[in-house]
Amino acid sequence: MKNQDFFETPAWVTRAILPHLPLCNSVLDPCAGKGAILKVVSERIGVDLCDGIEIDPELAEQAMRYGGVTTGDALKEDWMTGLVVMNPPFSKALPFVERALEQTRSRGGTVAALLRLGMMASQARAPFWKANPADVLVLPKRPSFTGKGTDATEYAWFVWGPGRGGRWQVLELEGGR
């Protein structure tokens, strides 16, 4: 059965956030999919510093080209990393963000999550945003996750970590695209 909540992150989307992150000695994508984010990150820092977790064994096998990817449920496992970069499944976005914050805060780590801007507009999530303000780095154009056009949704990278919270900006794209 095909995962209806799997949408591969376009490379330009990951490239847009990297200049705003501390590329440290370990980067984890806890919802690695086929490794699209890890591929771009590994081009900057090397495959040996990239790790991922993916619940789907077939996708995890594909992602292994770009780092040390294990098959498992990232919402139940412990992580050892200083930087999380992820595009979580929309249906589980908040649990993934909460888990990432839980796993990185004691180490002074950073979490970058690609989310719909609409994630901020919910009374149910308002307590989370009040307790966990993020920097919001808005994508200047809508990404196509399918290669067949864009949806009618705006996206941004939400970034938590030391010295972050409450700022926003529109990202610049490499080469203006």
**Intertermini distance:** 35 Å
Estimate the helix proportion, in percent: 10-25%
Query: Mind telling me which CATH architecture this is?
Result: 3-Layer(aba) Sandwich
**CATH-derived topology:** Rossmann fold
CATH superfamily: Vaccinia Virus protein VP39
Structural class: alpha/beta
What's the overall geometry?
A: globular
Mean pLDDT: 90
Note the main sheet.
8 strands, mixed
Strand order of the largest sheet: 3-2-1-4-5-7-6-8
Q: Could you give the count of β-strands?
A: 8
Q: How much of the residues is beta strand, in percent?
A: 15-25%
Number of contiguous helices: 5
Residue runs with pLDDT of under 50 for 5 or more positions = none
**Could you name the CATH class?**
Alpha Beta
> What's the order of the H and E elements?
HEHEHEEHEHEEE
Q: How many domain units? A: 1
Using only CA atoms, what is the Rg?
15 Å
